[in-house]
Amino acid sequence: MTREEILNELKGVVAPYTANKEALKNLNDQTDLITDLKINSANLVDIIIDAEAKYEIEIDYDSADKMLNVGSCIDVISEKLNQKR
Amino acid sequence: MAKRVVITGLGVVSPNGVGVSAFLNSLRNGISGIRFVPLYEELNMSCHVAGIPEFEWESLRNYISDIAIHGLKGHNIAFGVAAALDAWADAGLGYETEETRWETGCVFGNSAPDSEATKIVIERVDNHEAKKLGSRIIEQTMNSGVTSYISGRLGLGNKVVTNSSACATGTQAILMGYEYIKYGFADRMLVGSSESIDRYIFGSFDAMRVLSRKFNDRPEQASRPMSASASGFIPGSGAAALILEDLDFALARGARIYAEVLGGATNSGGQRGGGTMTAPNPTGVTRCIEEAISSSGVSPNDIDLISGHLTATMADRLEIQNWSQALQRGGKDFPLVNSVKSMIGHCLSAAGSIESVASVLQIVHGFVHPNINLEDPNPEILKIVDENCLPTKMIKKDINIVAKANFGFGDVNACLIFSKFNNQ
Question: What is the pTM of this model?
Answer without folding.
Answer: 0.96
